[in-house]
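Quick question, first post here. What does this chain look like in 3D?
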Amino acid sequence: MSGTHLKVLNLSKNKLNSTIPDAFPDNCGLQTLALNKNQFEGGLPKSLANCSWLEVLDIGNNHIEDTFPFYLNHTSLRVLVLRSNKFYGPISHPKLNAPWPMLQIIDLASNNFTGNLPTMLFSSCMAMIDRAHEAKSTLSYIKIDADGLYYQDTIAITIKNLEWELVKILTIFKNLDFSCNKFDGPIPEEIGELTLLYTLNLSHNTLTGQIPISLGKLSNLESLDLSNNKLSGNIPVQLANGLIFLSVLNLSFNQLVGQIPFIKQFATFSDNSFKGNERLCGLPLKLQCSHEKPQLPPPTYEESHWSIIEWNYISAEMGFVCGFGFVIGPLMFWKRWRIWYYKHVDDILFKIFPQLYLGKEHRRRQPFRNQGLRH
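> Answer (accepted):
Ran it through. Tokens below.
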């Protein structure tokens, strides 16, 4: 190695084998190391920690067998690609604190990593968190300035189930791919804080628990793959409400239950996104959900109290209206009832108030007197 003068070492897509030499000098100025798609074996050299300016490490698609490189926590990593090797063990370290704040691409797919997903690693990825100054950032690329000459980094990653070669790595592009490993346990809530993520792939592991509601905060996410795990519970409606730019979704082959929130972007996906969950129901699946009435919570004291008062008033008013209509209605529209009513009501009144008798006799005689006057 040539010390501080060597900034880029790209030997990708060759047939190089054996081990990577453990010969990085103390004054290493390397910023890009790309050894992708070769046949390197053995472990990752520990002297690589001397390269404190290292921004891009791409050693994917080799036969490297080692544990996670915690010793690189003093570097300036932006891109870490370990895909398709033989890395193993957990990604956790009790003394590891905020290792790579500028890390924007992490590709650990197709290895043998075990244990829980690294909460500390997610919390330290400040470049993936939407901060106030992010809105003012301009569109730029990761590039190396070597004495006035610029080198453009290029990496191969898998996005939306397709392998892409990023000829220019945008600084705004954020990607997490932990697929095809042996991670277990729950999905950390902390992933929901990485609000600048574009793609998230945790498929083909043995993750358990429910899908965190916090994933609904990943408003920039375009691809989400949680398939082939052991996730349970309902699909949070917050995902359907929050992931408004989602174009690829795969939740298949888990243990999810309940109705699919078939709204917004979720309404654009086929049944392939949800198949393999025997207790999921609703569109776009053929299995329809049972239409059971939801159980409403019991009313509060104030609601029940006012309900009793209102019904007392309503029942009195209804009784008055019904009684009034029962008596007055026939009097207005039925002549026989009107004649019968007036006759019997008068008789009852005369019995109760005898003084009214004179008035009755007076009314009876009046026609005869009038008849006599006509003669």
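The longest strand covers residues 155-159.
The two ends are 151 Å apart (CA to CA).
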